[in-house]
Automatic annotation (TrEMBL):
Keywords: ATP-binding, Cell membrane, Membrane, Nucleotide-binding, Sulfate transport, Translocase, Transport
UniProt key word RNA-binding: no
This protein's record includes keyword ATP-binding: yes
Coiled coil: none
Organism in which the protein naturally occurs: Rhizobium puerariae
PANTHER family registered for this protein in UniProt: SPERMIDINE/PUTRESCINE IMPORT ATP-BINDING PROTEIN POTA (PTHR42781), SPERMIDINE_PUTRESCINE IMPORT ATP-BINDING PROTEIN POTA (PTHR42781:SF4)
GO MF term (any one): ATP binding
NCBIfam families per record: 3a0106s01
Family from the record: Belongs to the ABC transporter superfamily.
Source species, domain of life: Bacteria
This protein's name: Sulfate/molybdate ABC transporter ATP-binding protein
Domain ABC transporter: 3-237
SUPFAM superfamilies cross-referenced by the UniProt entry: P-loop containing nucleoside triphosphate hydrolases (SSF52540)
């Protein structure tokens, strides 16, 4: 099911939790809503679900205007961070619940429900555990039961709000891989909320980066990581450093001096680069500063550099250096970004 979100605004006591949000989600797509706390991710998910209604704007499911439809009418499945399984029901009863409470006429026969539950158990790799109660399951297993329960009603769209947030790192990783496979097998349009960028980049077809109730950028993992469209996206996703610069006659100047980088145009702006996109340099035209800390990573090192800023606190940047490069604590390091982006003011 394709979902189209048109110019949505959502206010709580006049506070705009969402401000002019538009997004087209293709049928069968796996979409991540990624952003810091308070950026509006959950609010957007709740509006798609029909748990809340927009102050302005419209939401379409396919061609149908669903903006004022109820949750039931929208037929969406959702799973929250804190799996709300019924504790007094077995796994099988939890999964079949949504079907059993359907009004008579639309309720499948008992035998049909049993068949569907068994199919779903198989799909979430929990066959054999149907008679267990939630407290006899691990956190990851409970979350898979919650997913199976959401899927039982054959939803048009699957909505997940930090579904793995409460689990430990290893289980999270396993469930991530599992969810991707599950999605590829079932082909449901799926929207999930996360503030974990690794999760978003690894799992999603497209990542929607949100900040302060707005969409900053929508794109593939490569788009948002390699081609961030705004200073916010550049600094929110991955590691980066930032320096104020001037562009003059096709060259980049920092503190009035060329640093060996060409950049078209003229004006002032901020230079952004990632630690891995830097090379050490002996050239006169380069950035330089004092190494204040060094950390060993698996195959390389990260050096923290303070660049003097007369009369003010130094600029702090981080660069990745080869293990045996002569970059020592307290020494001076000279380097140039090899990939960068200048956002003009
Ligand atoms: P988190 O990652 O912390 O869950 P989020 O990105 O999901 O954050 P939302 O929960 O969508 O953010 O909240 C967006 C903004 O709207 C926040 O400033 C929040 O305080 C506000 N907000 C959300 N729900 C309500 C509500 N029911 N009443 C008043 N303000 C609300």
């Amino acid at each position: 099911m394709e979902v189209t979100i048109n110019n949505i605004r959502k206010e709580f006591d006049r506070f705009p939790a969402l401000n002019d949000v538009s997004l087209k989600i293709a049928s069968g797509e796996l979409i991540a809503l990624l952003g810091p706390s308070g950026s509006g991710k959950t609010t957007l998910l709740r509006l798609i679900a029909g748990l809340d209604y927009p102050t302005a704007g419209k939401i379409f499911f396919g061609e149908e205007d669903a903006s004022h439809r109820t949750v039931q009418e929208r037929n969406v499945g959702f799973v929250f961070q804190h799996y709300a399984l019924f504790r007094h029901m077995t796994v099988a009863d939890n999964i079949g619940f949504g079907l059993k409470v359907r009004p008579s006429g639309t309720r499948p026969a008992k035998e049909e429900i049993r068949r569907r539950v068994s199919e779903l158990l198989d799909m979430v790799h929990l066959s054999g555990l149907e008679k267990r109660y939630p407290n006899q399951l691990s956190g990851g297993q409970r979350q898979r039961v919650a997913l199976a329960r959401a899927m039982a009603i054959e939803p048009r769209i699957l909505l997940l709000d930090e579904p793995f947030g409460a689990l430990d790192a290893k289980v999270r990783k396993e469930l991530r891989r599992w969810l991707r496979e599950f999605h590829d097998r079932t082909g449901h349009t799926t929207v999930f909320v996360t503030h974990d960028q690794e999760e978003a980049l690894e799992l999603a077809d497209r990542v929607v980066v949100m900040s302060q109730g707005r969409i900053e950028q929508v794109g593939s993992a490569d788009d948002v990581y390699d081609r961030p469209g705004s200073p916010f996206v550049f600094s929110f996703i991955g590691e980066s450093s930032q320096l104020p610069v001037e562009v003059k006659d096709g060259a980049l100047l920092f503190q009035g001096h060329p640093i060996g980088i060409s950049e078209p145009g003229d004006g002032v702006g901020d230079l952004f680069f990632r630690p891995e996109d830097v090379s050490l340099s002996d050239e006169q035209e380069a950035l330089f500063g004092k190494v204040t800390a060094c950390r060993r990573l698996a195959g390389t090192r990260i050096a923290e550099i303070d660049i003097a800023n007369e009369g003010h606190a130094p600029y702090h940047v981080e660069i990745e250096v080869p293990l045996h490069a002569p970059v020592e604590l307290g020494s001076e390091a000279r380097f140039r970004p090899t990939r960068w982006k200048v956002f003009r003011k």
